[in-house]
Amino acid sequence: DAKTTQPNSMESNEEEPVHLPCNHSTISGTDYIHWYRQLPSQGPEYVIHGLTSNVNNRMASLAIAEDRKSSTLILHRATLRDAAVYYCILSNSWGKLQFGAGTQVVVTP
Amino acid sequence: DAGVIQSPRHEVTEMGQEVTLRCKPISGHNSLFWYRQTMMRGLELLIYFNNNVPIDDSGMPEDRFSAKMPNASFSTLKIQPSEPRDSAVYFCASRPIAGASGNEQFFGPGTRLTVL
């Protein structure tokens, strides 16, 4: 299964944008790029996903490199509620998710 | 919508006892997943079902673990006999369409299992 590489942690000030990078150099043509987050003491929560084109939704934006070997999750205005572990995951044809260690996002007031 | 429902939310048991975790997926969802989360190993996929049929159980640790999905609205994960190393948070998730890579998974609140 293709793997992803993310920084262990990132810090941001409240109301500032957060850019979370993810490298996935072994991605295959049919792999989707998914982002989930996990708030403390909760189950993971879907954030966004994409295949080739950039994607936007109410939670975040996903920017995918042209060669698809990397992507960036963008939180436009971080709030204290966005403090969580963010996981970048490649899904196979069955939609199977393999979670890595993720990036711990810390938001300071 | 109620979301994915898991029970119990907390379970404390003694080594050697049988433990059964329960999950009710979101109505209409065709895929169901069981995960386990520990500090040491993170989130691991144990097994998943498509249309009530187990597709991949390669993540199930050993024969002490078994999972069933007798119908589209109910699944169980059983550990018999339980051991202290099974202590973890167990999550159930469901997804609308079987075999679709782009579908999001909806996670339940988890069951925190402690085996003494």
Description:
- The complex is a heterodimer of chains A (109) and B (116).
- Chain A is built from no helices and 9 strands.
- By secondary structure, chain A is an all-beta fold.
- In chain A, the strands form 2 sheets. Chain A has a 5-stranded mixed sheet with strand order 1-9-8-3-4, with no helix packed on it.
- The model of chain A has no long low-confidence stretch (mean pLDDT 93).
- In chain B, strand 4 (31-38) and strand 5 form a beta hairpin.
- Chain B is 0% helix and 53% strand.
- Chain B contains no helices and 11 strands.
- In chain B, the strands form 2 sheets. In chain B, strands 2, 4, 5, 6, 9, 10 and 11 form a 7-stranded mixed sheet that branches.
- The mean pLDDT of chain B is 93.
- The termini of chain B are far apart.
- Chain A binds chain B through residues 30-32, 34, 36, 42-46, 49, 51, 87, 91-101, and chain B through 4, 31, 33, 35, 42-45, 48, 50, 55-56, 91, 93, 95, 99-110.
Q: TL;DR?
A:
The complex is a heterodimer of chains A (109) and B (116). Chain A has 109 residues and is mostly beta strands. Chain A is built from no helices and 9 strands.
